[in-house]
Amino acid sequence: MAHIEGISCYKFSNGVEVVNTTPHVINFLDFHKVVTVPPSGVLINAKVVEKEIKGKVKGVTFVTSKFMPIDEDIKNISLIQRAFPKALIIGSIVACQAYKGIVVGVTACKGYERVPITEKRMSIIKFTIFLPEKKGE
Question: Cβ neighbours of residue 65 under 8 Å, at least 6 residues apart?
Answer without folding.
Answer: 48, 49, 50
